[in-house]
Structures are given as C-alpha cells and as structure tokens.
Design a protein that fits this description.
alpha+beta, elongated, single chain, 1 helix, 202 residues, 2 domains, nine-stranded antiparallel β-sheet, Immunoglobulin-like
C-alpha cells in the first residue's frame, strides 16, 4: 500500500513539474523576443542618425555674379562715390547656411576713392562685420542683392579724386578687418577659397 501511495505522489510531482515547465516556456520565449526587438529598435534610431549625419554635408557659399548696374554717382560735398552694385550669391554645398554677410570693397584705380560699405535698401546690416545680413540660404539656392558700394576719399582729409575706373571685390561671408574682435566668425564651408569675385568698371 505504501508503495502505491509513493508511486502516486511521484506521479503527481512529475505532473506538477511538467505543468510548471509548460507555463515557463512561453514566458522565456517572450523575454527572448523582447530582447531581440529591443536590440532591433535600438539600432533603428542609431542607423537613422548616422545616415542623417553622413548625408547632410557642409554649405559652400560663392559669389555667383557681380555687376555694376549704372554709372557711379559722385557726391562732391560728401566727398564720396556711390557705385550701384548687384551681387548674387549661391550655396553650392549640400548643407544649409545661416547668418552670413554679403558685400565687399572697392577702389578707384585712377583716383583716391576707397570703401567697404555695401548698403542695400531694406536689408539689415550685419553687426560688427558690415555688409547685408543673410539669415539663411538653403543648399542649392541663390539670392540677389542690389545696393550701393560707398567710397570716400583716402585719406579722409584729402580732396576727393573720384577717378573713372574701379576695381570691385564682391564677397560673401567675409570680414575686412582681421584685427577686430569679430575675427572668429563665419560659416564652416566645404571651401573657404571661393568667397569672392573681382570685377572692373567700366
């Protein structure tokens, strides 16, 4: 009798262990699936971020064109010369650019007029560096400015000799004064050697 009872108890214990194993298997599988899902999900944003970083390059600002649109205006009383100047800049890079200036400098080849003030009506001037302020320019896009280069007699105490022939250096993302406190500036570009274009008038 005792042997029979012992056998029944063993059977019950084995059956219970079997049931516990049946219950635990799905839970273990769920944990493993969750681990694999988590690994996959973690890889997705990392891969997307890497792709975004590698495909989003740097901007590259150039002066696409510069043109004197009319005869220079000589203002004798103010000892100055105004040269109407149209400048088109383009972002040839693969990244967007922001907060840069457009302008340049000009001089009379056969006179004493010189200046680096480029003034565009209705356009904000970049503080500290001068020139027209450009808040943003998307990759592949261009923007045109029409304003005046203002030249004055050099030295400023001299009588103005306006001259008749002018050299104009149109620039984008520039600073004409390397000794100024604003020297650490500018847009990080693919190339820093193509930011200007020299033209002559007439």
């Amino acid at each position: 009798m005792g042997g029979l009872i012992g056998g029944i108890m063993k059977t019950k214990i084995i059956f219970c262990l079997f049931c516990i194993c049946i219950l635990l298997v799905p839970a273990c599988l769920a944990v493993e699936i969750s681990k694999e899902t988590l690994k996959t999900d973690l890889k997705k944003p990392i891969a997307a971020s890497v792709e975004k970083i590698t495909t989003k390059g740097l901007p590259d600002l150039i002066v696409e064109s510069a043109e004197v649109t009319g005869a220079p205006i000589v203002i004798t009383g103010a000892k100055s010369v105004l040269i109407p100047l149209k400048i088109t800049v383009k972002n040839t890079g693969t990244g967007d650019a922001s907060d840069f200036n457009v302008g340049g400098d000009a001089k009379a080849i056969d006179g004493n007029a010189y200046g680096f003030w480029y003034v565009v009506s209705g356009q904000e001037e970049m503080e500290g560096r001068g020139g027209a302020l450009v808040s943003s320019l998307s990759a592949g896009n261009s923007k045109t400015f029409e304003g005046f280069m203002i030249l004055i007699a050099q030295p400023i105490t001299a009588a103005l000799d306006p001259g008749t022939t002018y050299e104009i250096d149109a620039m984008v993302d520039y600073n004409l004064d390397p000794d100024s406190g604003m020297y650490d500036w500018g847009v990080k570009e693919n190339s820093e050697t193509n930011n200007n274009k020299v033209i002559y008038y007439p």
